[in-house]
Amino acid sequence: MSLDSLEPAALSRIAPVERLLARVRRRVGLVWGLRCAAALTSLSLSATVVCAAIAGGGALWSRQLFFAAVVTSLVAVILRYRLPPRSERLLAASVARAAPEWKSELMSALELSRADLAAEGASPELVTALLERAGDRAQTLSVEATAPWRDARNEAFALGAVLGLTLLVAAAFPHRLWSGFLALVAPGNVDAALLQADPIAGDLTLTYRYPAHTGLATRTETGVSGDLRAPRGTFVDFTARADRDVSQAIAIVCEKNTPLVVHGRALSGTLFVDTGGTWRLRYLNGSGRVIAEGPPRTVTVDPDLPPTAEIEKPAREVEVDPRGSVQLVYKASDDYGLSDLQLVWKNVLGGVEQRKPLPRPSGTVAWELSPLGMKPGDKVAYFLEATDNDAVSGPKKGVSETHVLKVYSAAEHHKEALVRAQALWERLVGVAADRVEEIAPPSTNAETTTWLAHGNVLDRGALSLAGDMRTAAAELKKDKSVPKGLSHALDNVAAGIGNAAQRTQVARAPIAGTAGGARSRTFLAAREAEAREDEKDVLYLEDFFDHVRVEDLLEMAKGLRAERRELTALAEKLRTEKDPAAQKAALDEVQRLKTRIGDLMDQMAALAHGIQDEHLNEEALAELSKDKDMIGKLDDIQKMLAKGDVDKALKELDKLGQQMDELEKSLAARTGEPLNEKYRAQAEKMERLKDELTALQTEESQLRDRTREVRQGAAAEQEKRVAKLGADFVEKLRKKVTEAQHAAAGVDRQVAEQLGVDEDRGALTERLDSLDRALAAKDFDAALDETSRALQAAGPLSARLNAEAALAGKRQSFFRSLPPEQITKSADHAGHVPPRLTEIQEALQKLMPQPGDQTPEQRGKLGELSSKQGALRRRMEEARREMDEVGKEAPIFTPGHGQLLQEAQNAMGNAEGKLRGADARGGQSSEEEALGKLGKFQQAMEEQAKNSTRGKGGFPMPWGAPRGEGSGDDGEDGDSTEHERVEIPQAESQAPAEYRKDILDAARQPAPEKFKDRVKRYYEELVK
Fold it and tell me: Is the pTM of this model over 0.85?
């Protein structure tokens, strides 16, 4: 019978027993584990404390002892505490400890639950009863009693004792125990493990002794953290106090040991700052073994920076006079001081580097350029080089930016101006092409808008080009090195294309909204006229540039000859020079001259290629091609000079000189002729025009003199009229002048300035003063002229002020800075001037000879003069037409020249009419005006003659604006400042002494600010 034959209820009774045994197994294992852990911890901690104490004493074998002790402790625990019971029999024995009386019953129940009941012959009823009883007992039994916690009390007591002992040792020997522990756990580095991380030194004092070159005073720091910061090469005297007596100590500065002086707790020594990093204190015992180390502190090296240098003036690149000087404004600095500062320069074209010490680290010095031997076109690069006084790492250098001195080169300016003008000419070619290609106005209104938009773009482009040409001409006038006549040529072309473009623009505007008709025809005519103007200007400028290039070729040929002569002089110098340094300098100069000659040859070839005329281009290139080996010959000459074969070099130089002379002569003979031939007809017309105008001026002057003679005969009649008017006649007129002066003075100056009529106000005041002086001198002719001039100034002034007063009364916001009352008051004062002047003019005119006052003989002379004046006027008209014809072929003249001749012709016509009417005074005045206009034209002809370099029949050079037309140029290539010719009184004018005294007194008075320039020009003309 087996256990399976028992009732299920009986079998369930054994389950509590099995659960009890499982709990007992866990309880026994837990108590066993606690005992093992406590025992192992006690043994290991004891071994650690003992070994750490040994290691803290410096024993090298402490680590091995520690590992041996740990292994021994583990083995002892294993041997002492065997594994807890796992079998049911042993577990039942453990239960028996809590209930000894139940051991037999428990064992029986377990055996019966595992046995074969049939084999054993057991009674089922008995087995069932036994199992039931065991299950009941198992449910009431406590497992804590089977393995109580007290079984581990011995191990716990041992662990507590070990912990207490460890704390006592740590408190008594903290440093030794801690350092020993670090030595045990730091693999492979016993010394590092022995060191202490916490600081044990304080009261640090650092005294910095800086290198002498820094100029820094000794500095002491107390109570600091110990971080070092100083320039390289600094010595730092160090003192500190440890928290206990020290046998030995060293300072480790950037991994370099520095011994310290130790007196008990006091530490001292000298540290050297060489590189950046850290430093720390290390303590040793009496035997020299490391026992502790302080925390790391930083070492920072202040860098000794290179010096800096700067050239403040002049600018990065300036043009200079090689015989002058340059004001050099500079500054240089260093963090600790400079030992040297030099100006360094070298000729870019070749030469040795040269130096000049500067006396101060900053300031201004005059650099004389004449010793540099620079020539036009040379460039000298220069900079500052500063050296500091670093005696530790060695002197360091710093340099400034490189600046350049450029010797003024007329040839370079000349070339740049030509390039600029060439660019404008190319734009003109484009404008001319656009005008030719522009379509006629469309026939339908729908297309007109697009056509107008495109046309307006063309108009603006042409006007913009004219403005750019005027700007370029104004700027080029200031440079005397530009090609002669270039600014005049651009000015004249700008005037021509600008006026033509404006006419086209004006003719285009009415076409908006219309198609076809008279307006379109007007526009087409204006456009065709502009196209002709553009074509004429394009061709003339093209020929003008060729003319300039031809002249430049000749000048460069002369320059080649000059360079060759200088090269010969250097070769002669090398023959007698024995100093090697001087020979080297001369050879460097030869190299520089060779470079310059090569540049000249290249420029000449470029110029020849740039000539537009095919014949001229071929002629020039043919001459230059003959001398293409000139540079090769110069190379051979340089080699001869370097070898010392000076005589042979001189012979070759003579041959080269002959070759250059032939080049110059050939270029002079073959260039320029085609251009001159092209414009020969115009040149001949110009010569005839000049001769005719000179003759007209001479004859007009003679006619003026004869008119003056006729007037002198009427002087007695004028005196009689004055006598009839009474002695107070002059005083009455002067009183009216005084009233006019007071009225003019009432015009507020602030009002005149803000309204832009200050010049009219000043001119009126000046004329009134002149009128008063003329009346005082009883010079009634001059007084009448001054009255007319005063009226010309007073009329516009009064009209402008009245208009502004009316506007100010309506819109006061326009005149916030000027009260309307102030403007109105000035207008009232200005309005009183013209009536007074009109009264004076009428009174003076009555004094003048009337048409019926002349004798028959005088009237006959005036009629004869009138006829001659008419003949001169007709000749003037013919000359003006001749000038217009020439102007249509080339833009030689400005509109001002034609206006001058027109005004001269008009003045002659006025003189003719006055003389015919027996008005000798009016005739003379008009003749004077005609002579003034002709005089200005004569000056323009003289200026043009200066610009012509090829004599009669040469290329027709453009004329500059006549004086008084706002040209404002100076020098040979332009007109002088605008001024009017001052007429010197003739001998017949015998003014009284009082009048002359007034003039002298007035001359001594300072001129008004606005009229200083005019007064200056007046006296300059007097001197002339």
Answer: no
